[in-house]
Amino acid sequence: MRKAFQVFLVLFGLTAIFIACLHLVLGPSAIPGAVPVNPTMDSEDRFYATLFGAYGFALLWCVKDIERKSTVVCFPALTFLAGGVARLISIAAVGLPNTFFIGSSGSRVGHFSV
Question: How far apart are CA 105 and CA 89, in angstroms?
Answer without folding.
Answer: 12
